[in-house]
Amino acid sequence: MASRQTALKISHNGEVHRVRVDLNAFALGDLEQLFASTFHLTPGSFVIQYQDSEGDCLNVTSEAEYAEACRVFLSADDEVKSLKFFAVARTQAAFQENVAEPIVSAIENLIVSLNSAMEKVKQEEWAMRAQSGVERTGDALNQAARDARDSLEAARQSIQEIPFEQFVRETTDGLKTAAEGISSFAHGVVGKFETMIPNDTKEMIPEESEKKDEEPCVEESDKKEAVESENQVETALPVLTPAPVVVETAPPAPVVVAPPAPVLSESEMRWADQLALIRDFLPDVDVQRAVEALDQANGNVEVVLNSLIG
């Protein structure tokens, strides 16, 4: 069988040596003897280890482990194939197995627990901020509802404070004053039309008739001219007759009386502001259903609107 020379690196306390060996004839005992002679170590006082592709440090204490280590190195993707072993004191190896590895494992578990706790704290913090934002929004909506309710109540009281008889009397007096003003204006217009009629129109027609009586012997041509001139005068000056002015009196406007306020139950009085705000968004909302939802949500309008809309 042809010999197969393979590069071998051995190290101890930072000191590294490189040799070439024939793996067909080089066994674990030869490797231990090479470490002892190279680094002046006492046989049995050290442990041979190697690092696999996953980064773990593994002990080589049997031929099977040595063969597996050679297989791992030779099957690697490195262009230059070589074996890499290092020696550590047996006490150091025992410390790593019994103390260091449990500590590292405990630290890793602690880091995982801390990360989980931090995520939980962040989630709780965001939840608290979201709840605080919802409460602030609910308070602002409740305040707006109270302000709108107060404004409507003040307007309703100002309307109810005016006596009904006074309102009717003032409306009737205003209509009478308007009718008298229209009548006076109509009489003034009629008087202006009468003064515009000329007096000469009334006097011209009798003068023409007198001329006919005084001159009976006028020739036929003069009579025709007189008749034509008389017709022209009558056509040119018509008598103006003023058109009658009709004065219409507007009927009194109907008086709208605000209906009495409905009687509210105890629950509706408790959530009056919230119900007013809900009616602004949902005019046809069922009052009983809205009151039950407000009782369950402790007056949170945003939650009630979401439940009613959903």
Automatic annotation (TrEMBL):
Coiled coil residues, start to end: 104-162
One Pfam short name: PB1
UniProt entry keywords in alphabetical sequence: Coiled coil
SMART domains: PB1
Name of the molecule in the record: PB1 domain-containing protein
Domain (PB1) ranges: 5-79
Gene3D superfamilies for this protein: Phosphatidylinositol 3-kinase Catalytic Subunit, Chain A, domain 1 (3.10.20.90)
Top-rank taxon, per record: Eukaryota
